[in-house]
Amino acid sequence: MSATFGRRGVLATALGVPLVVTAGSAAGAAGGGPRAAHGSVTGPDPRQAGDKLASLWFGMFVTRELQPGLLVNDRGYATMGFEPKPATLAGDYSTPEHRVGAFDPIRPWESCLTITPPHWSWQPGRPHSDFTTVVKTLVAAAVGDGNLLLNVPPTKTGYLEDGVTATLREVGQWMAEYGREAIVGTHGGPYRASGIGGSTYRGSTVYVHLTDDLRPARLRLPRLNARVRSVRTFDGRAVPYTEDEKGDLLLDLRTFTKSTPDMILKLAVDRPLTVEFVTRTAIAWDS
User: Fold this and answer.
1) Which of the four pLDDT bands, split at 50, 70 and 90, describes residue 65?
2) Which distant-in-sequence residues (6+ apart) come within 8 Å of 207 by Cβ?
3) Which of 262, 253, 259, 242 is nearest to 215 (CA)?
4) Is the model's pTM score more than 0.90?
């Protein structure tokens, strides 16, 4: 965990090394910068005090003093599984690695994945994730109300491989056409995600994301505590639907085709949505 203040830095470690915090007095003099301490402060040495968590807590306290708005992930307090992690040392957000996090609209999270799984650094001759895989991964993070950190390793020359560059260009084009509206600035929900897709929302608009192949069946959307006024494809075509006795919506997609890894449907509802509208069950194909 590190953060920069002025010309010097703050370093906290949980590996048995003494915690040392330094900050230059010029940090705040640049105008509007964080308040900095003068000189240096040395925290307890876990090897001497025998209390690793005390060092971790001290690091958290000092960094928050220097920069109250600092965001810290959950890795600065890793105890390697040998000690329980107190809730007060859980960080501000979670960072699941090599997997997409579970749906969680309460605690922020960021999945850490690499375009060359499972390697974080460049490996000659190793395959990389293609356009479809990257888009589906991005959508999975968004419908779970999380974020995606995608590692893209350069080669030994400092450049990206041509195949990786081509994939990123495709993803960028997809984001410009679809993601700018249906991903960026949205929340995950209100329909819970499943293996076939999920949903995001902004205000009174819901975006249903279907990453599964279309089937000759109706799509079931669980009952929502808001009235759906219309259902359309992303390009504006009306989608026929009915409502059953439970209040679930049944969308008839049998005449539609899918041309991208993520088919997006736009639902207009009668009120702005919040986390309180999240459904108990997930979207599914009607049996």
Assistant:
1) confident
2) 181, 182, 186, 199, 200, 201, 264, 265, 266, 267
3) 253
4) no
Rg of the chain on CA atoms, in Å = 23
- Looking at residue 195, its amino acid is G
CATH of 187-285, one of 3.40.50.1970, 2.60.40.1180, 2.60.120.200, 2.60.120.20: 2.60.40.1180
Determine the 3-state secondary structure of 178 from DSSP.
helix
Q: Where are the beta strands (DSSP E) in 174-262?
A: 187-188, 197-202, 205-210, 218-221, 228-233, 241-243, 249-252
Please state, in angstroms and rounded to a whole number, the distance separating the CA atoms of residues 172 and 44: 47
**CB-CB neighbours of 204 under 10 Å:** 14
Instruction: Kindly report, residue by residue over 115-144, the tens digit of the pLDDT.
Output: 999 999 998 888 999 999 999 999 999 999
